[in-house]
């Protein structure tokens, strides 16, 4: 037997108590069913990131959540599976129109015990299925009653199981400041979902909620983040508070807001509440409701464009007002927002790649952050040629209309905006390349 | 024309570099002991591994390169693709002969480009292994995972798992290269199983080795995987790009289902066509 062999080679001491068996076979069906129901109703929350954790395994605990997050798998729709994303329960006293768990929806209901969530998390984690837990919940009884249970799961994982994996807790709108504070002691990330981009929409579709109830906990979290950061400077031993920060989600396409409204809101949230991420979730119809639009497919491309624009604002130095304005309140679905900006601002181009500033190189379509950095380092050694650019990873098909290399352009004639747009979308010869297929890449960086 | 051969170890390869510099006899090819020299006119040197010489090359690289760029030289060794020895040699030679600091960023040199590309490939495969390893728990409490990576990344992923699973025994076994990393709560040992069970290669350990609840957790994970999917957003192309088929064999969620998981009927989806009254 091969396991015996190992024992001889390295002497495996008997391993006690890392694992608690689930009692009895009769537990199996309910647990499987619960997991099915509560994963199914949690999946529309798109935020799956597990990055930004700083929890180190010091000593001999379980898990480590340093550095970048890992996608352990991908769903058939190509989304990252990083966390065990479940609801504690899908019982809910509210009746938000867009939600599968709404009170008036006739569905199977289920609820995990605190211990069940802990066991699932630990056992999935030990098998390297997940980076950690993302726990949300319908509201049962009231906000604090629900929040208290979410906090209890996190506390148990951290204290009893010395779990250092990632924990993301959803903050229930209306939960008390004390509970939010306690949640931050155990969670890596906290989030409060805004869901709908304006007060009016919220009023219409989620009448029990209002902006204030959502923004208040968000404000508490921010205050606490700032406070702990200050205290840490003085006392290294100050306990961490949600080290991976806070995030929120906006549903796109369920209500009439423009991309400009959405991105302006997001930008404001980044600045005023120190959000790490705003997630955009293309509306998937889950319930019939006369207040909701009838659509056959979720607005996946629009969602993708919003992510790209968000990226440009956070990492590429663009302002929302540069990407969208009153005349153009919607992002172009055919081309990415950087290319759209470049086409509207032809006077800025062409840039000479051997001399242009890093900040400007970032604005060239087809050049990502990595390529821009490489360009700036490499040109210290020798003037760059087109071949160098290709090797560095610049997408010349797009970039060539906007740059020169050693004073020369790859294009022999000037093309107007329309021509460039056509060539990039349909290819050089104007053939109808499969546009939607090639551009449909969720979470892809705009470059 | 010089053909150098070595024992196949990293130190051995660094010793070759040292010798080549000392003799000022630049190799046209480097190969493992026993490999056929290229053509009959090549002068063949077998270089026995000498740790002190290897160390001098390694330390020398440390003075001229960033830590990451030096690490990349080791990664190119683990890359194992045809010509990797010469690539390493050309890169090291460039580093030692150029006066400027930061040669690793001189992307105008083909070997610098190639090294960066190799580094990227290795990073990807390492990252994938960190994600796609799936442990199965044996009755002895050992967490076992077979892997079959395209490149030899096992040594690169060990620190990650050592930190993550500090309180459980685990074994990650490369079934292609036939060696594994075994962690015994104290440290990691590289081991070779004299008789690896066929079920390890197949990716599913046989039930008589596994702990009683292992099948339940595998089933729970499959159920979870099936239920987080949103059918309306199906995108097989993207799915395959992130999760290429060659990894499926060892992924619990991609193995046959004991029982099919039907989507929960919690939606009352509005249809675009209004229903006609009967
Ligand atoms: S409160 Fe949350 S779970 Fe309850 S109906 Fe509204 S969105 Fe759904």
UniProtKB/TrEMBL annotation, chain B:
Region listing for Disordered, in residue ranges: 259-278
Domain DUF4130, residue spans: 84-253
N-terminal signal peptide: none
Pfam families (alphabetical): DUF4130
Domain of life: Bacteria
Database matches in NCBIfam families: SAM_7_link_chp
Protein name as catalogued: DNA metabolism protein
Lineage, broadest ranks: Bacteria, Pseudomonadati, Bacteroidota, Cytophagia, Cytophagales
């Amino acid at each position: 037997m091969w396991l015996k062999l190992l024992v001889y080679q390295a002497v495996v001491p008997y391993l006690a108590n890392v694992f608690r068996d689930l009692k009895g076979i009769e537990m199996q069906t309910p647990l499987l069913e619960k997991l099915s129901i509560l994963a199914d109703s949690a999946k529309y929350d798109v935020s799956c990131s597990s990055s930004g954790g700083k929890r180190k395994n010091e000593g001999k605990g379980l898990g480590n959540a340093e550095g970048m997050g890992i996608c352990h798998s991908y769903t058939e729709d190509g989304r990252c599976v990083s966390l065990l994303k479940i609801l504690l329960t899908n019982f809910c006293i509210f009746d938000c129109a867009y939600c599968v768990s709404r009170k008036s929806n006739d569905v199977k209901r289920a609820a995990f015990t605190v211990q069940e969530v802990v066991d699932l998390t630990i056992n999935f984690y030990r098998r390297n299925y997940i980076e950690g837990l993302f726990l949300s919940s319908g509201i049962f009884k009231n906000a604090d009653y629900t929040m208290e249970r979410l906090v209890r799961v996190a506390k148990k994982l951290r204290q009893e199981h010395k779990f250092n994996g990632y924990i993301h807790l959803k903050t229930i709108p209306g939960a008390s400041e004390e509970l939010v504070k306690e949640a931050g002691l155990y969670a890596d990330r906290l989030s409060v979902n805004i869901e709908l981009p304006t007060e009016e929409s919220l009023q219409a579709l989620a009448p029990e909620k209002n902006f204030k109830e959502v923004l208040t906990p968000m404000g508490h979290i921010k205050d606490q983040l700032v406070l702990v950061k200050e205290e840490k400077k003085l006392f290294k031993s100050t306990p961490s508070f949600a080290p991976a920060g806070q995030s929120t989600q906006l549903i796109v396409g369920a209500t009439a807001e423009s991309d400009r409204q959405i991105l302006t809101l997001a930008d404001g949230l980044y600045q005023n509440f120190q959000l790490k991420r705003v997630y955009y979730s293309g509306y998937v119809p889950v319930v019939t409701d006369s207040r909701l639009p009838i659509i056959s497919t979720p607005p996946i491309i629009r969602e993708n464009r919003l992510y790209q624009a968000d990226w440009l604002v956070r990492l590429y130095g663009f302002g929302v007002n540069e990407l969208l304005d009153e005349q153009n309140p919607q992002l172009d679905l055919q081309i990415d927002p950087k290319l759209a900006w470049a086409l509207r601002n032809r006077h800025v181009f062409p840039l000479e790649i051997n001399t242009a500033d890093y900040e400007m190189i970032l604005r060239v379509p087809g050049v990502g952050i990595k390529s821009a950095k490489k360009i700036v380092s490499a040109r210290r050694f020798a003037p760059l040629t087109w071949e160098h650019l290709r090797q560095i990873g610049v997408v010349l098909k797009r970039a060539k209309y906007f740059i020169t290399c050693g004073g020369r352009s790859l294009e022999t004639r000037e093309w107007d905006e329309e021509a460039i747009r056509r060539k990039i979308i349909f290819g050089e010869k104007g053939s109808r390349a499969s546009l939607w297929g090639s551009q449909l890449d969720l979470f892809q960086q705009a470059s | 024309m010089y053909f150098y051969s070595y024992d196949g170890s990293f130190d051995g390869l660094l010793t070759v570099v040292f010798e080549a510099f000392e003799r000022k006899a630049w190799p046209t090819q480097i190969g493992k002991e026993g490999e056929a020299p290229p053509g009959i006119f090549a002068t063949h040197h077998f270089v026995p591994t000498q740790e002190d010489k290897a160390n001098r090359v390694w330390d020398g690289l440390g003075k001229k390169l960033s830590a990451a760029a030096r690490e990349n030289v080791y990664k190119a060794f683990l890359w194992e693709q045809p010509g990797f020895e010469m690539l390493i040699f050309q890169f090291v030679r460039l580093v030692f002969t150029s006066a400027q600091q930061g040669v690793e960023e001189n992307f105008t040199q083909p070997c610098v480009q190639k090294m960066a590309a190799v580094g990227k490939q290795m990073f990807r495969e390492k990252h994938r292994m960190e994600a796609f390893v799936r442990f199965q728990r044996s009755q002895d409490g050992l967490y076992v995972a077979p892997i079959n990576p395209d490149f030899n990344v096992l040594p690169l992923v060990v620190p990650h798992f050592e930190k993550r699973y500090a309180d459980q025994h685990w074994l990650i076994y490369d079934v292609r290269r036939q060696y594994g990393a075994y962690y015994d709560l104290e440290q990691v040992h590289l081991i070779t199983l004299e008789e690896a069970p066929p079920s390890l290669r197949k990716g599913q350990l046989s039930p008589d080795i596994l702990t009683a609840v292992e099948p339940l957790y595998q089933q729970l994970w499959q159920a979870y995987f099936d239920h987080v999917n949103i059918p309306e957003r199906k995108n097989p192309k993207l799915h395959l790009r992130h999760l290429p088929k060659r990894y499926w064999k060892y992924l619990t969620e991609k193995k046959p289902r004991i029982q099919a998981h039907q989507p929960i009927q919690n939606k009352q989806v509005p249809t675009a066509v209004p229903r006609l009254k009967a």
